[in-house]
């Protein structure tokens, strides 16, 4: 098979998502197949037909109390002044709760109201009314009544009702079989050893688990190399046995994106490209009557496309509506720009700060898996909008329980590895609290506190005039706001260089001279400010630094850059160098403090946070990392 | 072992629920055990320790586009007026999206912006900026960064992030083993044949499935007879291997409620009786360090007690907070009376009618499983309240997704078997709609429409004056309201009697004469009104009818009463007699019509309902039941 037959197709459609979904739902018209399974194993399954009770519950008149069963007519004469004697067998029998009432009786008197005279005789002083304390036949379930219609998802209590009605096998919709085909010559299994250019295949596992969650039966196939013949065979095999087929990557318009041509050759292509960002390069087609969904390779695009196109198919098969996510009204902390004519799906962080929900966009790069992991919600910007302004109120689909968002401590500012420890220690004490941190740099952290977008910011801002850390910046930038600066820890900044320091870097002059490939930090980061100060002191201009414009967003990112490049160097904290097994040449000790609003500092969450910082357990963990000194008797500075 | 040692203990405590929970949480202090499981199988599991990335993703500088990798410095001269030629190998290489960038290059130019001159040479007309179109190492995940703290429930996308960071085995909290012991000599398996006095054991299956849902590992044991020695052995065996033990029934104060005595003998009893209704007779104790929870036998009490006491233990073990249910503000359609000094848990139906959520209590009998199945929400009345008034706004915990409640058609009034068919046919066409019906009788149905608590009411009300059905009642009771009476069907009422009609019932006189045990319907039911009219016409007084005061709530309940009692009789519709294989002697044909608000009739839901009624498929299904005539060209009557 000649690769050239599958030529590059540069332009994709921009079909509205709704239209694209409806086309495949109509073409598929999947309907459920029934299978009977034991009721006790039917949790979460969907009834495929209405279910009717086989027996009543109770299926006999049952006593609702411990006591005696009587015939009410026999007791009408009983009175406090004229106690009545009843004889066992003929006029009463003892019953416990749940016991059957013998046919000749029609009422129950509670044992507390019975005087036992001897083995054969009781005395009562009050008449019984007919049917008192009796659970009549069918009080709970009446034989032949409909317990559930079709399309009902069975919950634990539902299984009880089914068994009570003696339905030991229940008709449920068979799970639709969804075959997942990962393609790509660059893909390897996560267990393999990594080499440059190879990428771990993980989308398939994600797909399989989404499909499981949605009620389908996933079948994840082995990785298929980028050869048209292989892909063709995999597709033909899959449509033979599956209800739905998902093929990952090759859905775009690149030179090795064969998929669309192959589907066109074997069947029909309904759509190639939908009007969404991300997620545009989607293929929707049909081979031998089975819907084939080609999803993009970038993880975020891939999962969104799966939800848009595969989930409705699974739900159609199960005869249930596509569940909707809980929504929340939030205020936007930043402006959001959107493409006209396409739906934009923006992953958002949500913080509950000062009594309101504030949301900020995460990275919009479709390749960043962690943006989905970290997202609290999804903002869908409709195709006719150019976006939203900062401060606008918008509705967001939640990706996490609201409770979890409400209980999150929003951590902003500079990155430090101890924040993860703090997070983990806090969760050990208070599993309902959570630290959500974004690494935006010290200056941006201060601004987040100013704008009410965060509870806490980690900062290390050196004042070039006074050589003092943090206080002067906070006073200047947050004048008039009630904030607290909590002295958190001292740490050492230094050069992060490859093992053995091949370029012999020990100051900025040496860095410039050696033409090291420098991994700089983003504007506003405390480490960047320190670096600029060092340049100024040694009168080196930024132009003399190779890589000055290259911005990393955390100490670990800098260390990751240095690792594996003998010519690289960066400035950062010791633990980052240690974690990546790199060399470290100390430059300066600095104060990394926690800036908080006074309201947060005094809140329950704030008090917990401080108590964790002051705990022995936390100090021990920090010492294990090394390179830190925790301020042990720190006094907060009210500003 | 002598049963007498375990004497009746009549009084239970009324301990506040919160206090009771805290005691066992403290006594248990369950902490998680870690197990490493394959990441691909970890969906829904809870991390037991923080998880750090083993590799970066990407772990090399990767191209973000299809194009050529270049050294940016080599391209600075390129200009539209001065095209620049680059030679392959030395000055550029071709790269596809995801390919590694060779170390000597630092930028990518998109293939669209490249002119290919020959196999060795390309031309560009614009300079590249350093690092353009390159995904740097760690853009998504940086080696050593914390991906998840402990206590995180893994979702599909999370598994992708783990695999991407080459974590193929993930540390998760082992599921706590919860042993469930059903006790009771009256219990049988659902597969057994039912005899009088025997009850199907189904609580155990419900418990097991709740525990599964909450993240535990249930172990449901065989039924244990009510013998102290058996119970003791079962408990001792269970505490040996389990993390938590649940024993069902025997937790009250009856003569066979041994459990509390046994737990006291083998260990400690913390609590016997909590201040809740239902759910009061709970036992909380400890044997050999393991918490033992004794839950009541009545299903509703049992499931609530499980949620209150076992769920927090499971969550403590998994180190996660107890999830909270979504809540909703609703208006109460009826008054709710509550016990002072105890929390009341009232199962509620919620209808979204005329743009507001109206909630009404379901039966409060703790023995009615179906009340939990049917409940949309739970109203918790705090111990210091005597209840709520009709019209009060209260907050309800939802037991069903809000979307499902909002899309429900609330059906009230008289019971008819075709309503189930309607429900099932509607769901076939519109799986996002649902009919929720309560059988309250025709008059109560009219009142529900009047009070805005229902969308539709099935009614069959015979006017004794005019002998006309429904119209005169509606005109009188709903004067001034815009409603529609939709002619639904004609059906036959008649005597429901045992096979062969042993008492030869064929009119009310015969019924009185034979002293049949009559199963009457509730006040306000159309069938009751018909019966009263028959009595009046034949001048029989209610006192002459044996069982006149005995009220059944549906045709099927009447038929269930008649079945198995040779002396019984009832009045009802033909299909009910047929379903229970009873004889039927026709008495009168009647009109069973649907009363709707005009707003509902004209809504999307209303139009769907009518289209289903008019469909051929529905008529065929109704004909299969028999005894009905569907009004095929019915014209709605606007009143």
Give a nutshell description of this structure:
2 copies of one chain form a homodimer. The first copy, chain A, has 639 residues and is of the alpha/beta class.
Could you characterize what this model shows?
The structure is a homodimer of 639-residue chains. Chain A has 639 residues and is an alpha/beta fold. The first copy, chain A, has 18 helices and 38 strands. In chain A, the strands form ten sheets. In chain A, strands 29, 30, 31, 32, 33, 34, 35, 36, 37 and 38 form a ten-stranded mixed β-sheet that branches. In chain A, strand 8 and strand 9 form a beta hairpin. The radius of gyration of chain A is 35 Å and the shape is extended. The N and C termini of chain A lie far apart (73 Å). The N terminus of chain A is likely disordered. Chains A, B: One of its GO terms (molecular function) is molybdopterin molybdotransferase activity.
CATH topology of the largest domain in chain A: D-Maltodextrin-Binding Protein, domain 2
Number of domains of chain A: 5
Would you identify the regions of chain A where 5 or more consecutive residues have pLDDT less than 50? Answer: 1-9
Q: How would you describe the oligomerization state of the chains in this entry?
A: homodimer
The 3D shape of chain A can be described as extended
Radius of gyration of chain A: 35 Å
Query: Major sheet of chain A, described briefly?
Result: 10 strands, mixed
How far is the first residue's CA from the last residue's CA of chain A? 73 Å
Figure out the total of helices of chain A.
18
CATH class category label of the largest domain in chain A: Alpha Beta
Helix content of chain A: 25-40%
Please identify, by name, the CATH architecture of the largest domain in chain A: 3-Layer(aba) Sandwich
Q: What structural class do helix, strand and pairing data of chain A support?
A: alpha/beta
Mean pLDDT of chain A: 93
Q: Strand share of the residues of chain A?
A: 25-35%
Number of strand elements of chain A? 38
Give the largest chain-chain interface (CB within 8 Å): A-B, 118 and 119 residues
């Amino acid at each position: 098979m000649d690769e050239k037959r599958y030529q590059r197709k540069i332009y994709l459609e921009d079909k509205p998502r709704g239209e694209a979904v409806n086309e495949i739902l109509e073409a598929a018209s999947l309907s459920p197949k029934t299978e009977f399974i034991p009721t006790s194993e039917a949790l979460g399954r969907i009834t495929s037909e209405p279910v009717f009770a086989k027996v009543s519950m109770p299926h006999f008149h049952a006593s609702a109390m411990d006591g005696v069963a009587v015939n009410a007519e026999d007791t009408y004469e009983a009175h406090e002044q004229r106690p009545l004697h009843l004889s066992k067998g003929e006029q009463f029998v003892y019953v416990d709760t749940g016991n059957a009432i013998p046919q000749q009786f029609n009422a129950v008197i509670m044992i507390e109201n019975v005087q036992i005279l001897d083995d054969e005789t009781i005395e009562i002083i009050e008449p019984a009314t007919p049917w008192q304390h009796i659970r009549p036949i069918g009080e709970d379930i009446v034989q032949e009544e409909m317990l559930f219609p079709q399309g009902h998802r069975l919950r634990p209590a539902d299984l009880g009702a089914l068994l009570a009605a003696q339905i030991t096998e229940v008709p449920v919709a068979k799970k639709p079989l969804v075959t997942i085909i990962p393609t790509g010559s660059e893909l390897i299994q996560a267990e393999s050893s990594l080499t440059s250019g190879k990428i771990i295949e993980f989308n398939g596992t994600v797909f399989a688990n989404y499909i499981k969650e949605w009620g389908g039966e996933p079948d994840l196939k082995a990785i298929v190399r980028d050869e048209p013949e292989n892909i063709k065979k995999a597709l033909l095999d899959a449509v033979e046995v599956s209800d739905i087929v998902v093929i990952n990557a090759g859905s775009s318009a690149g030179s090795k994106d064969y998929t669309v041509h192959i589907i066109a050759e074997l069947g029909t292509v309904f759509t190639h490209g939908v009007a969404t960002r991300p997620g545009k390069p989607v293929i929707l087609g049909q081979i031998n009557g089975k819907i084939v969904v080609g999803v993009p390779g970038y993880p975020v695009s891939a999962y969104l496309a799966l939800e848009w196109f595969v989930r409705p198919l699974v739900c159609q098969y199960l005869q249930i509506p596509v569940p909707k996510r809980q929504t929340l009204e939030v205020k936007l902390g930043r402006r959001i720009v959107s493409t006209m004519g396409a739906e934009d799906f923006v992953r958002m962080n949500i913080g509950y700060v000062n009594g309101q929900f504030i949301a900020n966009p995460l990275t919009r790069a479709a390749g960043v898996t962690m943006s989905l992991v970290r997202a609290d919600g999804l903002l869908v910007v409709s195709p006719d909008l150019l976006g939203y302004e900062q401060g606008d109120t918008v509705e967001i689909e939640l990706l996490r329980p609201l409770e979890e968002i409400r209980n999150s401590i929003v951590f902003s500012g500079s990155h430090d590895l101890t924040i993860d420890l703090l997070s983990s220690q806090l969760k050990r004490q208070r599993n309902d609290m959570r630290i959500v941190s974004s690494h935006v740099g010290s200056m941006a952290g201060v601004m987040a506190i100013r704008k009410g977008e965060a509870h806490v910011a980690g900062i290390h801002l050196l004042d070039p005039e006074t050589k003092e850390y943090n206080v002067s910046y906070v006073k200047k930038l947050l004048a008039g706001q009630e904030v607290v600066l909590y002295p958190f820890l001292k740490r050492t900044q230094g050069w992060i260089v490859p093992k053995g320091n091949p370029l012999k870097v020990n100051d900025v002059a040496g860095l410039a001279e050696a033409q090291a490939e420098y991994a700089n930090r983003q504007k506003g980061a405390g480490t960047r400010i320190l670096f600029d100060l060092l340049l100024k002191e040694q009168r080196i201009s930024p132009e003399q630094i190779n890589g000055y414009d290259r911005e990393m967003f955390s100490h670990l990112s800098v260390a990751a850059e240095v690792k594996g490049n003998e010519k690289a160097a960066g400035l950062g904290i010791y633990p980052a160098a240690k974690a990546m097994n790199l060399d470290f040449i100390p430059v300066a000790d600095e104060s990394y403090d926690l800036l908080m609003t006074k309201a947060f500092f005094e809140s329950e969450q704030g008090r917990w946070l401080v108590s964790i910082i002051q705990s022995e357990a936390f100090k021990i963990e920090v010492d294990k990392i090394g390179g830190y000194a925790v301020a042990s008797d720190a006094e907060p500075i009210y500003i």
